[in-house]
Amino acid sequence: MRRKLVVGNWKMHGSRAENAKLLSELWRALPAPQHVDVAVCPPFVYLTTVREQLIGSAFKLGAQNVSAADPGAITGEVAATMLSDCGCDFVIVGHSERRQLFGESDEQVAQKTAIALRYGLMPIVCVGETLTEREAGKTLDVIARQLDAVFTSLSTAELHRIVVAYEPVWAIGTGRTATPEQAQEVHAFIRQRLLRYDAAQVQILYGGSVKAGNAQALFAQIDIDGGLIGGASLNAEEFAAICKAAE
Q1: Domains: count for the chain
Q2: Which residue range forms the structural domain that includes residue 94?
Q3: How would you class 146 by CB atoms within 10 Å of its CB: exposed for 0-12, middle for 13-18, buried for 19 or more?
Q4: CATH code, domain carrying 213
Q5: Given 95, 104, 187, 238, which residue is catalytic?
Q6: pLDDT tens digit sequence for 145-170
């Protein structure tokens, strides 16, 4: 039985005061999750303070991105060794905003996945199609290409240490959400793809305008193992309700 996982991606939001308030409210709303793992991914500059604030809680820490390179003379980048040193458990790689806004390629996502694993981080590998690709009937082709770029670069043992997140680009921050049936269709395809690599037990999350009102229907699907939550993770009550739906 795959355990549920809910990850809050704070994106480029927050301050020390806002983060402390959010976490305090979240602990009150979700004091001891029993059947779901919960993680938060603040911006790089807040990783250390959020790590300190998480002490004594059941919540885990993640980062939103990682360099594909080892430490060195690369201004503005953050190495996997640094994230590990800050106490991160997870790191998001290949988020649609990184692919769309910064031109990250499938190959770069594969490199980031590999280096995260090398330094003990669990990469959350994001895949998803644009609206144009969906309307052209290319959704599964796009997902297969994105997945295979990562899967073929890893050993079976490494594959068992990743998480996959399906996030249709047309549903990120738009208020539009894939129906549970649409999401399940793609998740089932990803599960079959994982089966080719003997890694069918890998958790697959759904991301794309998940809210308290639609979380239960999404998480009830057989191949959806939780969520990668954006805007709703900045509201403690909303995020706690999503986590409870996963439980």
Answers
A1: 1
A2: 4-246
A3: buried
A4: 3.20.20.70
A5: 95
A6: 999 999 999 999 999 999 999 999 98
